[in-house]
Write a structure and sequence with these properties.
With about 280 residues, the protein is of the alpha+beta class. It is built from eight helices and twelve strands. The longest helix is centred in the C-terminal third of the chain and has 43 residues, at about 235-279. About 15% of the residues are buried.
């Protein structure tokens, strides 16, 4: 028993940290600490300067179960007193996250056209602050491409590829051939000095995939019709516009679906009345 006690005491003594020895070891290597701490701070600052911040934009949506025509199973479940709310909300979440709905938003807001001001450490996306707006006559044919737009106060517009080669020069609103489609450069605000903007064009499908990946819809409170719609985006104004357009499109599609159900119901009743009258 004494041996066991002595072993426990020895083990406890080994677990105790000698602060004096630890401080001495640190003091001996003080040069490394003086060098490493500023380097770590400088590296953290550099990372903050070159990285693009991503914002989490979110909004709360109350889903009404009368938004769409209530026919069939949903009505029967309510008449029997069974909880069909959770299943209904989950179905609506799937619709809010559908790529078809997001594609409609992408086409409405021209999200496949990005305007970027290039910087030394970090590029800045302009969105609505761009001095120009690119219009495409056949946006469905757009393929991934990028080019620079050079502007001056004389309303002269020059397009250059990323290698610095001149592609086209002219004035605002003139047609620029790009293969399967044509585009035009329109002024979005007054240009007071020479500016250089990079324009990135992407297909609807690729842009839809990007925004759908950053979209998340989840139930806000259990057993309620409230959902939280959140979107990660580097441009807060664009994120807000996307969520607003998404909810607007969702509501409009619900109204259209309800109208279709009503018209189909009226048509069915009229057909049955015609059959009864013929009999």
């Amino acid at each position: 028993m004494n041996e066991n006690v002595s072993r426990e005491i020895q083990s406890d003594q080994e677990d105790v940290i000698d602060l004096g020895k630890l401080f001495y070891k640190i003091l001996v290597r003080w040069r490394w600490f003086i060098i490493s701490v500023p380097l770590c701070l400088a590296a953290a600052l550099f990372y903050c300067l070159i990285s693009t911040p991503v914002y989490d934009i979110h909004g709360k949506v109350m889903i009404s179960d009368t938004k769409k025509g209530e026919l069939g199973t949903n009505v029967m479940m309510k008449e029997l007193g069974l909880a069909a709310a959770d299943m209904f909300v989950e179905n609506e979440i799937v619709e809010l996250q559908s790529k078809n709905l997001m594609r409609e938003v992408v086409e409405e807001l021209d999200l496949n056209v990005r305007y970027v001001r290039e910087g030394f450490l970090r590029d800045r996306e302009l969105y609505n602050d761009s001095p120009v707006k690119v219009l495409v006559d056949n946006p469905g044919e757009i393929r991934d491409t990028s080019f620079h737009v050079l502007l001056d106060t004389a309303n002269l517009v020059i397009l250059m590829n990323l290698d610095g080669e001149k592609m086209w020069s002219g004035h605002y609103s003139e047609s620029v051939p790009m293969g399967d489609y044509n585009l035009s450069i329109e002024p979005n605000r007054k240009v007071t000095s020479k500016e250089k903007i990079r324009v990135d064009l992407s297909s609807f499908r690729k842009t839809t995939d990007v925004f759908s990946k950053n979209l998340n819809v989840q139930i806000l409170v259990k057993n309620t019709n409230s959902v939280l719609v959140s979107l990660k985006d580097a441009v807060p104004a664009r994120g807000i516009a996307v969520i607003n357009a998404l909810v607007k499109r969702y509501n409009q599609n619900g109204i259209d679906n309800k109208r279709i159900v009503s018209e189909a119901t009226v048509e069915f009743i009229n057909e049955r009345l015609d059959v009864i009258n013929q009999e």
